[in-house]
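Problem statement: downstream parser choked on a complex file, so we are re-checking the raw output for the NAP run. The parser issue turned out to be on our end (a line-ending mismatch), but while we're here, posting the original submission so the record is complete.
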Amino acid sequence: MTSSTQPSAHYDAVVIGAGFAGLYMLHRLRGLGMRTRVFEAGDGIGGTWFWNCYPGARCDVDSMQYCYSWSDELQREWQWTERYPTRNEILRYVHHVAERFDLNRDISLNARVIAGRWLTDAGTWQIDIERGPTVSARFLITATGCLSESRVPAIKGLEQFKGQTYHTGRWPKIPVSFAGKRVGVMGTGSSGIQAIPEIAREARELVVFQRTPNFSIPAWNGPIDPAHKQHWMANYPFLRERARNTRSGILYDYGTRSGVSMTPAERQEEMDSRWRKGGANFVHAFNDTFVNPESNQFLADYVRDKIRQTVKNPATAHKLLPHDHPIGTKRICVDSGYFEAFNRPNVTLVDLRNDPITGFEEHAVLTQSSRHELDAMVFATGYDAVTGALERLNLRGETGQSLREIWKDGPTSYLGLMTAGFPNLFTITGPGSPSILTNVIVSIEQHVDWIADCLQHMQANQLERIEPQPAAQDRWVAKVQEIATGTLFVKANSWYMGANIPGKPRVFLPFIGGFSTYVAICRDVVSKGYEGFTFSALASKPSCS
Ligand code: NAP
């Protein structure tokens, strides 16, 4: 791994980001014989799992599925230890992959891409690296992640606060101790719900500032079940293929009946059995959870009952009851003792809807009705999801306009893979692809493979430039929104809708038509000669250094 690059180097391809997407992309590009460089902003590889080292950070996809499938040896040799892998274990896995496939030598760390422009005549991308050289590449591929542009909300007076402040997605790499401290946590999404029980155990006092109560399902995490592991190890290729044929790329136990069609006893048994197993599988109890409000309500009521049973103080329990969105339409959370944490004497819940923050002082947060003295404040306030990291790159296409400018009314992308006017720029898990609605590793692999196959096609046919046709892109953008409109997801103020970022256009960001459907569409596009894309040979070639 290097922390510098050759000055003014020219590459066949530059990849931005060294997380799961960037690493696999590098591997595939090498296989095509392309001279490739990966630029990574962080001082380590792993992307999301490099940055997110907050207390309790772990993945809530089954560890046997939350890993690459492109190397059978790799998936057979790696030994997961828990049902849901911790951040540290995932990061160890990432390092293992990078070493095993000798990836590190083509990765530049501490190398944030701060701008890029397409040079039409040269047919290359020119890319600026912070405190580094400007490089050029025929192809530019973003692997910046959908949840990497962390966001601390603008809160009046925050700059006056003299205590420590943290964001879960930018957690320091040095140990953080909350022992004996008074800590505030703002945010009760997946990150907050994981961090809160851990911080509650350590801190002297914990104040949770909640804006929207959230649904969460117990993880019942523990050592991996040896029989489960053995089953996966013995049947990996088959099970992976089955997962790819589902709507989320994850082998859940997808319910086949409408919640409404079941008798009350059948429904209860279905929900009880899923609750006992734990995890996100719970919301897949019915085949119409996300389109039928009645079926959705059965599950939502069930979880609300569980919250009432778990949280001993009825007033606190009441504040924790999710009420403003159908279950699952904000990313479902999976927890280890989240609601139980509110039974601890050192934990206080502040309902910001009824008692909003009015400001910060040097050592306290003020709400309309109270003052909370704090030594540290943790923001688990999420991300400018899907588009934020891409827009930040300041990439300018053929007309000189940036992605941010072009996307001011919502992202435009064909298949989530490319944007018209930005030739030779591929976006792994870009807007309008299934990405964050799936096991994102499965989505990453599909995109990387599609891009690599496309580049191979271009090599074979001496094609040097590819871009989507505006009409094909318009149709895709409309389709993404049309499918979302038929679901309950559009009823929630979620980050899927861009609703968490003030001023962000309210459009549904991922493709919700299902992973397997999306894959079939991508295959169909290829089989029809890359329908909707335009290829060309370039008149002049850039000189290589
Ligand atoms: P998030 O889901 O966007 O949650 C952010 C939280 O901060 C929400 O409770 C939000 O309230 C609150 N918030 C934001 N701005 C606020 C403000 N101005 N005042 C008060 N509260 C505010 O972010 P996240 O928890 O980091 O999770 C993001 C995604 O990352 C997840 O949905 C998931 O896809 C992924 N993730 C996965 C795992 C896992 O695998 N277990 C763990 C962590 C993250 P509102 O709801 O009112 O907006």
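For whoever reads this later: The domain at 10-149+385-536 is CATH 3.50.50.60 (FAD/NAD(P)-binding domain).
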